[in-house]
Amino acid sequence: MTLLTAPAEPIVAHTAPGLTSGRLPRWAPWALLAASLVMSIAVFGVTSGGTDLVDFNIAGAVIVGVLLYMVLITVVSAIAESRRKATDRLMTALVSAAFTIALLPLISLLWTVVVNGVVRFDAEFFTFSMRNVVGDGGGIVHAIWGTVLITLMAALIAVPVGLMTSIYLVEYGRGRIAKGITFFVDVMTGIPSIVAGLFIYSVFALFVRPGISMGFMGSLALAVLMVPVVVRGSEELLKIVPNELREAAYALGVPKWLTILKVVLPTSIAGITTSIMLAIARVIGETAPLLLTAGFTASLNTNLFSGQMMTLPVFAYNSYMNQGTSADASVARAWASALTLILIVMLLNLLARLIAKWFAPKMTGR
């Protein structure tokens, strides 16, 4: 009796791609980029004399190095891989370079604000106001309270109005009324912030008294700027909710208002929350409308309906424009208030992501 055995399979060694395997290894683009930058820096170092770092053009060296890298990666990829892959690598390099160039101003801005603002990040700065302070010292506790209260009230006014408007436009709006609302929302999107402040100030000057300033007026001015942002963002997110979800609810006999409340809004709550945070971030740094409506003060005021209130953007503007007896201390307070405002916006965005994660519909497997 003969036993038949299967032929042994050949052993194939799996090796990393090399320069001659039709595909560049992963380290090749990074090595070419490093080599390009080194050569460019060396050339610029020789042309600048190589003794004084002040005369060294680092921006020019980086730009020339990146251009040299694009040429090298295209040529090497065309030789080792193919023309199509070389074109792909060139486009990848171009897009990466464009993204880096677009990111540089933001990085530079954040770095400048952090370096100049962290100087005054101390306990006194966050626990004291500017009352009776004319030189060094003082803090922004009154500006933080003013910013939080005015922005919170603006959100409480603008978010329900904007969300209900977007629901009407998507679920109910038809004909001339919907077109008119859409037109006015588009017009409001381009309104300068100073116009919103002048509008609120004029209304209160006519119906209350001229020269009045209080935090609630600032909230109304910010709400005017927030409403079109909330409407536009929520409208687009409600439109992308699949109609099959609505039709399934209607087939079960669920009324339309309950379908919107229980199906449409929970499905798009993550995106709606993001649009609300974008609207808040859009208005929390406004200065011009708050100068006209909320005014400015050196004391702490938590009453939105009585007296002037200080906000962080107005505090930064006032500290820089009116430097008083100690210019360095005033400018340091301005930078620190700007950094505080950035941190508040960052915390609001993190909170929005957490809320979106908590309330987003849970996807379960079958």
From TrEMBL:
Keywords: Cell membrane, Membrane, Phosphate transport, Transmembrane, Transmembrane helix, Transport. The chain crosses the membrane at residues 27-46, 58-80, 92-119, 139-169, 181-206, 212-231, 263-284, 334-356. The keyword Manganese does not apply. GO terms for biological process: phosphate ion transmembrane transport. One of its GO terms (molecular function) is phosphate transmembrane transporter activity. GO terms for cellular component: plasma membrane. CDD domains: TM_PBP2. Its main location: membrane. Residues 144-352 form the ABC transmembrane type-1 domain. It comes from the Bacteria. Gene3D superfamilies: MetI-like. It holds the Pfam family BPD_transp_1. It is a multi-pass membrane protein. It is found in: Cell membrane. InterPro entries: MetI-like, MetI-like_sf, Phosphate_PstA, Phosphate_transprt_permease. PANTHER family: PHOSPHATE TRANSPORT SYSTEM PERMEASE PROTEIN PSTA (PTHR42922). Part of the binding-protein-dependent transport system for phosphate; probably responsible for the translocation of the substrate across the membrane. Belongs to the binding-protein-dependent transport system permease family. CysTW subfamily. NCBIfam families: 3a0107s02c. This is Phosphate transport system permease protein PstA.
